[in-house]
């Protein structure tokens, strides 16, 4: 089965846990990983990597530096990702376990979090939005990216997450539309978590 067909199948099976209807384009991936520093040994956490569209670009940008932890809820995709990218530690887990996963590995704080999660994954649990939980384990100058399809930006879950990003980070910007993605998308970039 092709990658596109697998994505569509997973989306149809579980639209609340599969954010994308197909693999993201290289143009979108480049915008998503732009905050990863070109020097040093950053800790990069990738949420919901799926079949690895962002993973591949992250690995190329890191070029053997730092640590790349990929957290995927789909067991099959998590296993496949680990096999395709030996430099990535692929873990089958819920994104809310990121603080625990970082602590278990002695990684301290994440420098960049790249999220391909669906909006539903960001809903508050016990009153705490996911972005707030993640901000608590990010470096003071850390960055968070999340993509959204242009038609979903005005839906209530998207507006709620944008408000959560503005409340949790000192700076939040939304990119111009990435037309070279199907469907067209935007990237939310949030920097400097207030709780760091």
UniProtKB/TrEMBL annotation:
<dbReference type="GO" id="GO:0008168">
    <property type="term" value="F:methyltransferase activity"/>
</dbReference>
<protein>
    <submittedName>
        <fullName>SAM-dependent methyltransferase</fullName>
    </submittedName>
</protein>
<keyword id="KW-0808">Transferase</keyword>
<dbReference type="GO" id="GO:0032259">
    <property type="term" value="P:methylation"/>
</dbReference>
<keyword id="KW-0489">Methyltransferase</keyword>
<dbReference type="InterPro" id="IPR029063">
    <property type="entry name" value="SAM-dependent_MTases_sf"/>
</dbReference>
């Amino acid at each position: 089965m092709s990658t596109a067909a697998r994505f569509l199948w997973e989306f149809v099976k579980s639209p609340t846990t599969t954010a994308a209807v197909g693999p993201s384009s290289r143009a979108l991936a480049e915008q998503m990983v732009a905050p990863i520093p070109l020097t040093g040994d950053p800790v990069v956490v990738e949420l919901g990597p799926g079949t690895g569209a962002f993973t591949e670009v992250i690995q190329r940008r890191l070029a053997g530096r730092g640590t790349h932890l990929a957290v995927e809820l789909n067991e099959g995709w998590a296993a496949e990702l680990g096999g395709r990218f030996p430099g990535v530690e692929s873990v089958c887990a819920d994104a809310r376990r990121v603080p625990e996963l970082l602590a278990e590995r002695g990684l301290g704080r994440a420098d960049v979090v790249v999220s391909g999660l669906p909006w539903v994954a960001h809903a508050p649990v016990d009153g705490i939005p996911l972005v707030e939980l993640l901000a608590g384990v990010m470096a003071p100058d850390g960055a968070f990216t999340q993509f959204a399809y242009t038609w979903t930006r005005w839906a209530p879950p998207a507006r709620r997450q944008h408000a959560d990003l503005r409340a949790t980070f000192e700076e939040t910007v939304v990119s111009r539309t990435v037309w070279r993605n199907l469907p067209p998308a935007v990237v939310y970039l949030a920097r400097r978590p207030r709780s760091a």
